[in-house]
Every structure is written in structure tokens, then in C-alpha cells.
TrEMBL record:
<dbReference type="InterPro" id="IPR050266">
    <property type="entry name" value="AB_hydrolase_sf"/>
</dbReference>
<dbReference type="Pfam" id="PF12146">
    <property type="entry name" value="Hydrolase_4"/>
</dbReference>
<dbReference type="InterPro" id="IPR022742">
    <property type="entry name" value="Hydrolase_4"/>
</dbReference>
<keyword id="KW-0378">Hydrolase</keyword>
<feature type="domain" description="Serine aminopeptidase S33">
    <location>
        <begin position="13"/>
        <end position="203"/>
    </location>
</feature>
<dbReference type="InterPro" id="IPR029058">
    <property type="entry name" value="AB_hydrolase_fold"/>
</dbReference>
<protein>
    <submittedName>
        <fullName>Alpha/beta hydrolase</fullName>
    </submittedName>
</protein>
<dbReference type="GO" id="GO:0016787">
    <property type="term" value="F:hydrolase activity"/>
</dbReference>
């Protein structure tokens, strides 16, 4: 049985599984680690197949596989209920896990999330984007578009992390996942609390207005918090506030 690799922090009884986004790995959360409550909580910063510590684990790199890998890790650790957190791309995985295996969850936390309906673009644009992701310059374009407020040093750091954190096959297939998957017809089956963090300076598709409009159709127990001085990476841009809000959500 495949076992995803992770970094563990804390010795508390409250378990939090933390997943990463498309162009990063568990290193995304390093800036906020010093501010997390390690007495009451135990955090697992998990890398999906093809990413970070799990970079050598081969797979199909899709939602079903990721959901099964998380379930296997919960069972291997003999855990009863956890809080599951996803960032951007992995927030889609978290929502699907909550649809299929809600009994293992206390709540879910979604950071700058992808909607349960995925990201909808024209078929031609989708194929062009997937093709472009296999070229060296596309990641640079995405990073620069997402981080216009910041300097070149920040952009260089994010670009380097994007390339080093994952295999090309994993990146392309997980992007394909959120461009093609749609669980919106099942999303209302999630009855546990759904906590959301968005950044004011993120892309419009991740804005509070868009997320609230769609999520309130599906999730009855919903709370959305907007970080005023963050974009797509609140754990890096505002680490103290991010850590504080995560703990508040986990209570």
C-alpha cells in the first residue's frame, strides 16, 4: 500500500492534515510553522504523489487517487477524525474527500479554493494551457500574473519552488484534474463545517465574491475569511495571521 510522505509537527490530540497547491509542496507552509500551536495540535504536512517528499511515488495524479491516498494514511495512523486542509488545487481533493468520506472529518479548511465545479474554460483554451504547462516559460507567466505586487526576488523564489517541488507529469495531470473534474452536484452532501480563507489580491476566480456566491449554494455551515494583505499564498504573505486563523478554525 502506498504511503504518502509528510512532515509532522506537534504532539497534540487534534489532528490536522495539510495539503499543498499545484506549484509548491509542504515547504509552502514553512513561514507559518513557528506560529502554530504544537501543544494542542498535531500537524501533518503531506506531499501528494509526484511532489516534494513524495516526488518519487509514481501514480496517475488525479483526484480519486489522491483521495484514496489520504484515506489510506488516516487508516495507517489509526485516526478517527481529523481536520483536512487544502490549498488551491488540493482544495478540490479535500472537497471530494469530504463528499466520499465525511465520517473521518471534523471539518474542512479550504485556502484560496477551487470550486467543486472545477475551473471552467473553453476546450481549446484548456488544451493550450495544458500544452503550455509543459514549456518552461508558462510557470513564469503564471507566477508573475499572481504576484504583481511583489519584487523579482519573490518571483524568482516562487518559480524555482514550482519547478523543484514536483515532476512535470504530476503538475500537468493535477492541473488537468481541476480543469475537468466537477463534483458540484454532490457538494451539498457535505454537512460538516467548511472554513475558507481567501486573499484580497488573488485572481478574480478565487475572490471572496465568487467563492461566497458559489459555496453558499452547497455548504450550509460555511465561514469565509478574507485576508486583506494577501494574494494566493496567505501562509507565506501573512504567516502569523494565517496560523492564528487556522487554529481558530480548528477549535
Amino acid at each position: 500500500m502506498i504511503k504518502l510522505k509528510y512532515k509532522q509537527l506537534g504532539e497534540g490530540e487534534n489532528i490536522v492534515f495539510i495539503l499543498h497547491e499545484l506549484m509548491g509542496d509542504c515547504r509552502n507552509y514553512e513561514p507559518c510553522i513557528s506560529y502554530l500551536n504544537t501543544k494542542e495540535y498535531k500537524y501533518f504536512f503531506i506531499d501528494l504523489r509526484g511532489y516534494g517528499l513524495s516526488k518519487d511515488i509514481l501514480g496517475e495524479y488525479n483526484c480519486k487517487e489522491a483521495v484514496n491516498d489520504i484515506l489510506n494514511l488516516i487508516k495507517q495512523k489509526e485516526l478517527k477524525k481529523i481536520t483536512l486542509l487544502g490549498h488551491s488545487m488540493s482544495s478540490l481533493i479535500v472537497q471530494k474527500f469530504a463528499i466520499d468520506y465525511q465520517e473521518y472529518l471534523k471539518k474542512i479548511i479550504l485556502i484560496t479554493p477551487v470550486l467543486a465545479s472545477g475551473v471552467k474554460i473553453k476546450e481549446e483554451d484548456k488544451q493550450n494551457l495544458l500544452n503550455d504547462m509543459q514549456n518552461d516559460n508558462k510557470i513564469e507567466d503564471i507566477v508573475k500574473a499572481a504576484n504583481k505586487r511583489y519584487n523579482q526576488t519573490w518571483n524568482d523564489y516562487r518559480i524555482k519552488l514550482a519547478y523543484s517541488s514536483s515532476t512535470l507529469e504530476a503538475r500537468v495531470n493535477y492541473m488537468k484534474m481541476y480543469l475537468e473534474e466537477d463534483f458540484s452536484n454532490e457538494a451539498s452532501n457535505i454537512k460538516i463545517p467548511v472554513k475558507v480563507i481567501v486573499g484580497k489580491y488573488d485572481f478574480p476566480v478565487f475572490s471572496k465574491i465568487v467563492i461566497k456566491k458559489e459555496f453558499q449554494k452547497w455548504y450550509k455551515d460555511l465561514e469565509i475569511f478574507e485576508i486583506e494583505d494577501a494574494g494566493h499564498y496567505p501562509m507565506v504573505e501573512t504567516p502569523v495571521l494565517f496560523a492564528s486563523k487556522i487554529e481558530e478554525f480548528c477549535k
